Prior knowledge:
Low-confidence stretches: 22-29
Largest sheet: 8 strands, mixed
Helix content: 25-40%
Strand order of the largest sheet: 4-3-2-5-1-6-7-8
Radius of gyration: 20 Å
Strand content: 15-25%
Structural class: alpha/beta
Mean pLDDT: 91
Number of helices: 13
Shape: globular
Amino acid sequence: MRAEKAYVEALNWLFGRADFEGRQPRMPEAFCLEPIRHLLGRLGDPHRRYAVVHIAGTKGKGSTAAMTAAILQAAGYHTGLYTSPHLHTMRERIQVDGRPIPLEAVVDLLDRLRPAVEADPALTVFDILTAMGFLYFAESGVEVAVVEVGLGGRLDSTNVVEPSVCLITALSLDHTEILGPTLAHIAFEKAGIMKPGVPAVTAPQPEEAMAVLRQVAAERDVPLFSLEGWRMGPQVITATGQQGEIVAPDGTRWSVRLPLLGRHQWENAALAVAAARLLRAQGWALSDAALREGLERVRWPGRFEVLRVEPPLVLDGAHNEASAARLAETLAEVFPGRRWHLVFGASRDKPVERILAPLRPLIAAVWFTRSRHPRAADPDRLGH
């Protein structure tokens, strides 16, 4: 009880800081990496004590991060995983070997960070969480950390790392008020994680986005690879998982069972495999068996999570038009012929009708609701 009380008090202090993630969108002019760099410098630059796989993208970056971390763990590496946002507890964002950061560690780290944080009003909640995660990884002795970008890439707090590999997942329109109105704008922000000489792999992208990624890669002397020439997909799909193959352009193939549902997860899995192959080329011991075992063991709640098979109950975090379209495709494939009762909530800045449009043919009724998040939209307005 004492630990829980101290934890709540620590979070109350943390979320009393500037919280652009929670209370208001962060405007482009508010982005700056200097505060997080200065804070990490005062901590001894913990983010430089381990290797990093850095992942940006619009959709799938969390799933890809979880898969990549699972492969590294299956290979026996002490692995950190930094993701956002969380579903149930902030502790989910900072994991070591699949275990969320303990309550006591959160309290201790925030207490140690407090003097430096209070000396710099420019530091945001996400800056502080990022620094806390990086410090926790260093003090836990992780060998490699898989780090998911929070928003964008170029000016995201995580973009202080010196990665061994960069991944860019599928790009689509989202957060346009911050990242820009077109795919080209969004691709430029995501491409900001690419570092000179560091190999990067991208999912298939529309040409408008791909042209930007190629241009930035050329300017920075980045070896840019894509999944062009890769083949991947399911052979069997059930409500509990998928069985299929991933085949690299050189003919190497992996027979894989994925517990995550949706055909789009094969693209994310192929990105994780491509990252593992690039790390293997750098000397990491990542066997094909570890690749298969990691993908089979991955857990990532809230992504077409089947809570009950009959009658089916599905939880999904689709929050833009592209992800809603994939949700609709997966519902139709896994549970053909069903009409669904949808419980739906969204942030105030989301284009609700465009998100709902792909789902409408499958929906019998909609109940609008809201979370406790400060940016949650009023349910009475969602239906109008």
